[in-house]
Amino acid sequence: MHQETDDNDWPPISTGVAIALTLFAAWIAWQHFLTADAWVFIVDNANLALHEAGHPIVGLLSSRLMVYGGTIFQLLFPMVFAHYFLRERQSSGWAASLLWLADNLMNVGRYMKDARAGELPLVGGGDHDWTEIFSRWGVLAHDIRIGNGMKILGLALAVYAVWWAWQHRNHD
User: Transmembrane region positions (predicted)?
Assistant: First the structure.
């Protein structure tokens, strides 16, 4: 098991990996902020599968909490990977996991913003998770503001991940 140590014990990231992470972060941001679809094809298809799996799994614990299961799973999986790479001090994996989480935060923000409009296609039809959640919380009228905040949080995390990668790159 890994013992806590300082920031200097991380292995360096190659410049090529730092460039790849930067390009991936730029692509994610481009897709989420500058395209109508706001969909990162390969990553978000996997995220959708995690999201949909979360509903019935959380539903086993409580039918009332089932609506939260999708977002919980969508955010939990990259957080588990990030925790593992943090604990093991695997620099590239840590930065990539943060980008995966950042993409999911932006994706959740997109979904939140759609709570009243209901324009996004839903898997299997049914009710919109965030319409239900925001209605329960009494904040449905603020869906766009909350969703934009979530997207900005995701963007900030992506910027941090790229900055961190460049700070930990091999200076050869």
Answer: 12-30, 65-86, 146-166
Backbone angles phi and psi of 169, in degrees to 5: -85, 160
Tens-digit pLDDT profile for residues 106-153: 999 999 999 999 898 877 667 899 999 999 999 999 999 999 999 999
CA angle 147, 78, 49 (to 5 degrees): 75
Question: 14 φ, ψ to 5°?
Answer: -70, 155
Is the backbone of residue 138 left (phi > 0), alpha (psi -120 to 50) or beta? left
- The DSSP string of 98-162 is HHHHHHHHHHHHHHHHTTTT--S--TTS---HHHHHHHHHT-GGGHHHHHHHHHHHHHHHHHHHH
Q: What are phi and psi of 126, to 5 degrees?
A: 80, -170
| Rounded Cα gap, residues 112 and 117, in angstroms | 10
Q: With the C-alpha atoms ordered 28, 29, 34, 39, is the resulting torsion angle positive or negative?
A: positive
pLDDT digits (tens, 9 = 90+) for 55-67: 999 999 999 999 9
